[in-house]
User: Which sequence fits this backbone?
């Protein structure tokens, strides 16, 4: 037993040394510290990279500065693991003492980040995670979102499907809160306009054996199906749906995550799918073509909605810093500047709601020629109701 | 090494750990606190793996049950009493272990490993899928439990130093408790089961009952760790029960050398240290971690604990070949 | 549920169960015959699926990809056995758990380094891309039926291999008494190498066949691993027939659980396992 303890002792010293060297690397200087807590490995790695790229592109456009100040980046890979979320957020907040925390994709991880940000009064911009709570019951003066709430694209889709004259709809999603919030948003709009959801179906995440549900849909014969799926599961669902022949008689709709990043994986099966989202290919504004060109030049690939959200996170912070005269320490003024900013986004200009969520146009898109082409604006200037936000 | 030297080393280690909050770096105090929590977790598993010979691959379930119990038993915006939630959450995880143990202890060997894993998955889905657990996003623990007794506050868990010393005290307590248990007749039966269960049975021991008691006890102590984890981080998610967590804690036990309580503590420190170190080198740190694990199994049978012995033997010219 | 729906759901259950059998069969062979617990089995499935993706994009055909993939994975399996697993036979289960856990991390990161983290689709071969209409709105993809047929053929092939061939006889003998086999002058190490490579190739083949319907994505092996464990536990370690029965039971439990008990569908599979354990702690068909 003594040997092991000896080992433990030495290790303790080793760890203390590591800690000391890591600790000294954060000497104070004049740069503004931006901490990215995003997924750089695992399922969401490409999303994390796109957000980082988008953010850095805007900074590069400003000559490497935000609000006239140089930027220094700190990065932590959150691995999309909620079990490590608080600890990872603390690395940036307590160890690196960043001025701005940016993250993340996974909603559960983002909720933990919001908690750390509130407790430490660190400014947080969420560049993707759509959990309604972040700008709902858990809203805070120092918590912002540059993306969307789960409610937004789904609510717009509910309105739209009711307008199309669809009456009887079946919903299907993974049994996790983001999926359920999406279905709730859809249902709210759809049933308000006279439609009826005849059956809500869920399956455990990340299960992708959809066959029993397709059989069930065929038996119910609804007018349409509304689903929330994203990533690999979404691609598989769309393919299974088409292979079951259901796409010929029962049209499929959903928030844009169904097709974004999946067009290649879905192939033929995705053709003609209509989805709603706050970004689309072929938007009619001045900003988007310039953004796309710049992005494609720098990163040798096409930007997506995630890159836009990263880009806008940088724009938002830039507006705040400018208002505070470049002093990140004047947090109240930074926040005021961000709240009153009008962001000239590639998705179309947007402002922030009282709860700090974008008030934005939601587009109806259709998969055409390997792109999510914009068809129309499904909801103009849609604001999340921010239920439960006391701010 | 004689026992005085061993005791001195233990006290030195304890002193070193007690000095951590003096650094004032809140991040590192929290990292050390987390490692101590994992050390408690690893010791609880060592009772099964190292001393009783039961390789449980689902120990994260009991850690998670207690963590969820804290979050669910605490009122939303007020502090719960520590003296109520601590025993309650530990009791619940022991109860869960008792229930699961009743099923899994009917199996042996590879079956046992897989069945404990499968039951942990079942527990994972209970928190992940049912309305009870708040789904995949997890639950906040908004306010840490209070240690107040009738208006008197002996220590404050909201204060990071107090929390750290509370965890350190828990570590010492669990260590002393396990050391005491292992020297009792009960502990000797467990060790006997590990070396030869049939012999213990023929001696008239009802080994199933002993194993069940050990399983529930380990679950409860794992619950102590889960409770502390929830208090430190204020956030629980189903991932706490995932099989990766079960794998990690098993790794800590093995790294430190099974059947040694100080080894389990060392294993937790080595594991956390490696994670931090590799992650600072490369984003593909899991590749390095995997490589280290594979190499350790191939070249270091017996874990780190066996390293000094091996070195000593090879220095003495004795063959250290396995 | 009306009668037609029940029939179609039964078809779904059978098809899902057969695919699960294909993954689990390799696991139960390696468990039963070599006494090795292999957590990396899910990674083998993942490797198969990614091979199908890479080889299909290079050669342009899933058939060619599978024809190339089978010998390739068999070779990788033999290599792994030689380099790593052959050192594990005399070690305890714990060290096997540890080594294979390390392998999962390595395979997952190598996948990320070599192929990236994006989701990719694999096209169903044109020959099987049609669907058979079952009702006025629902069709059944031919490719799924093909997978089922392949699984049935493989199950029969495995039965034949183990019960009727000399290799199978040696495998069965090796399973029961290692020293006896060695005394007869049979090279037990070679048998183990073949069995392990076969187990690897079976899991990889399952991945290759499933790739067109599941897409390929990071961590795809992890779900498959746990469900395979459950199947092996229910079926009885080492029993190929047990695995087949268990896989079908799980196929039915999962399919009907999703439709009839949506709130508990994640748990149904594990509850079935608990029930079986109460009834027969060593699985439905205990291997002697």
Assistant:
């Amino acid at each position: 037993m003594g040997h092991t303890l000896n080992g433990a002792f030495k290790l303790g010293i080793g760890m203390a040394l590591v800690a000391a060297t890591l600790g000294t690397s954060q000497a104070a200087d004049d740069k503004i510290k931006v901490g990215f807590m995003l997924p750089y490995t695992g399922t969401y790695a490409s999303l994390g990279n796109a957000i980082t790229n988008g953010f850095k592109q805007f900074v590069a456009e400003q000559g490497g500065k935000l609000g006239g100040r140089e930027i220094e980046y700190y990065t932590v890979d959150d691995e999309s693991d909620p079990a490590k979320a608080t600890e990872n957020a603390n690395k940036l907040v307590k160890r690196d003492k960043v001025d701005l925390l940016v993250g993340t994709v996974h909603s559960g991880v983002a909720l933990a980040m919001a908690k750390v940000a509130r407790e430490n009064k660190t400014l947080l911009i969420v560049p993707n995670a759509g959990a309604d709570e972040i700008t709902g019951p858990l809203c805070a003066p120092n918590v912002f979102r540059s993306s969307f709430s789960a409610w937004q694209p789904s609510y717009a889709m509910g309105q739209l499907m009711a307008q199309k004259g669809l009456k009887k709809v079946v919903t299907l999603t993974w049994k996790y809160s983001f999926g359920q919030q999406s279905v709730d948003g859809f249902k709210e709009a759809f049933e308000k306009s006279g439609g009826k959801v005849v059956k809500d179906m869920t399956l455990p995440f990340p299960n992708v054996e959809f066959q029993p549900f397709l059989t069930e849909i065929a038996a119910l014969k609804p007018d349409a199906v509304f689903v929330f799926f994203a990533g690999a599961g979404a691609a598989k669902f769309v393919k299974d749906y088409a292979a079951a022949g259901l796409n010929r008689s029962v049209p499929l709709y959903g928030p844009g995550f169904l097709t974004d990043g999946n067009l290649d994986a879905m192939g033929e099966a995705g053709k003609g799918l209509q989805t709603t989202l706050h970004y689309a290919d072929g938007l009619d504004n001045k900003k988007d073509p310039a953004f796309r060109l710049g992005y494609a030049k720098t990163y040798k690939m096409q930007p997506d909605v995630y890159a836009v959200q990263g880009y806008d996170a940088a724009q938002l912070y830039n507006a705040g810093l400018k208002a505070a005269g470049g002093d990140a320490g004047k947090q109240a003024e930074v926040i005021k500047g961000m709240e009153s900013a009008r962001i000239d986004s590639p998705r179309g200009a947007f402002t922030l709601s009282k709860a700090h969520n974008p008030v934005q146009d939601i587009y109806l898109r259709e998969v055409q020629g390997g792109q999510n082409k914009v068809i129309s604006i499904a909801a103009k200037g849609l604001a999340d109701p921010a239920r439960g936000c006391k701010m | 090494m004689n026992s005085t030297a061993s005791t001195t080393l233990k006290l030195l280690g304890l002193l070193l750990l007690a000095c951590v909050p003096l650094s004032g770096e809140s991040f590192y105090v929290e990292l050390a606190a987390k490692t101590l929590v994992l050390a408690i977790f690893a010791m609880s598993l060592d009772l099964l793996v190292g001393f009783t010979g039961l390789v449980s691959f689902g120990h994260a379930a009991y850690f998670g049950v207690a963590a969820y119990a804290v979050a669910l038993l605490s009122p939303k915006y007020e502090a719960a009493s520590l003296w109520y939630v601590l025993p309650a959450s530990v009791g619940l995880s022991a109860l869960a272990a008792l229930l699961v143990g009743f099923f899994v202890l009917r199996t042996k060997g590879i079956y046992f490993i897989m069945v404990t894993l499968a039951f942990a998955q079942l527990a994972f889905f209970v928190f992940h899928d049912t309305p009870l657990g708040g789904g995949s996003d997890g639950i906040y623990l908004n306010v840490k439990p209070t240690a107040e007794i009738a208006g008197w506050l002996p220590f404050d868990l909201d204060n990071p130093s107090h929390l750290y010393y509370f965890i350190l005290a828990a570590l010492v307590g669990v260590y002393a408790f396990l050391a005491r248990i292992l020297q009792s007749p009960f502990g000797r039966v467990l060790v006997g089961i590990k070396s030869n269960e049939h012999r213990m049975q023929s001696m008239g021991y009802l080994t199933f009952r002993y194993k069940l008691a050990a399983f529930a006890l380990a679950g409860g102590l794992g619950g102590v760790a889960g409770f502390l984890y929830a208090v430190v981080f204020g956030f629980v998610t189903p991932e706490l029960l995932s099989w990766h967590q079960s794998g990690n804690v098993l790794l800590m036990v093995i790294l430190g050398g099974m059947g040694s309580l100080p080894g389990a503590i060392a294993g937790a420190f080595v594991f956390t240290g490696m994670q931090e170190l590799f992650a600072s080198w490369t984003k593909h740190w899991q590749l390095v971690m995997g490589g280290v694990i594979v190499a350790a199994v191939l070249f270091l049978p017996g874990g780190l604990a066996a390293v000094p012995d091996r070195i000593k033997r090879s220095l003495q010219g004795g063959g250290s070949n396995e | 549920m009306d009668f037609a729906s029940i029939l179609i759901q039964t078809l779904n259950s059978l098809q899902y169960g057969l695919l699960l059998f294909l993954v689990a069969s390799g696991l139960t062979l390696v468990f039963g015959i070599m006494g090795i617990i292999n957590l990396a089995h899910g990674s083998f499935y993942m490797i198969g699926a990614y091979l199908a993706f890479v080889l299909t994009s290079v050669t342009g055909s899933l058939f060619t990809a599978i024809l190339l993939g089978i010998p390739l994975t068999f070779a990788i399996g033999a290599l792994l056995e030689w380099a790593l697993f052959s050192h594990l036979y005399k070690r305890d289960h714990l060290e096997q758990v540890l080594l294979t856990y390390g392998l999962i991390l390595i395979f997952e990161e190598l996948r990320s380094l070599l192929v990236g983290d994006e989701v990719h689709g694999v096209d169903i071969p044109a020959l099987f891309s049609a669907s058979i209409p079952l009702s006025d709105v629902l069709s059944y993809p031919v490719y799924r039926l093909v997978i089922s047929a392949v699984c049935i053929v493989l199950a029969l092939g495995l039965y034949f291999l183990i019960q009727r061939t000399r290799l199978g006889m040696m495998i069965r003998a090796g399973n029961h008494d290692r020293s006896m086999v060695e005394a007869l002058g049979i090279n037990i190490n070679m048998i183990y190498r073949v069995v392990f490579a076969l187990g690897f190739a079976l899991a990889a083949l399952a991945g290759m066949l499933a790739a067109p319907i599941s897409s390929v994505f990071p961590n795809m092996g992890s779900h498959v691993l746990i469900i395979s464990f459950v199947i092996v536990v229910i079926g009885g370690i080492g029993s190929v027939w047990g695995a087949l029965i268990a896989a079908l039971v799980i196929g039915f439990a999962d399919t009907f659980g999703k439709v009839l008990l949506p709130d508990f569908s994640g748990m149904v599979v594990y509850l079935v396992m608990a029930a079986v354990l109460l009834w027969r702690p060593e699985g439905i068909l205990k291997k002697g």
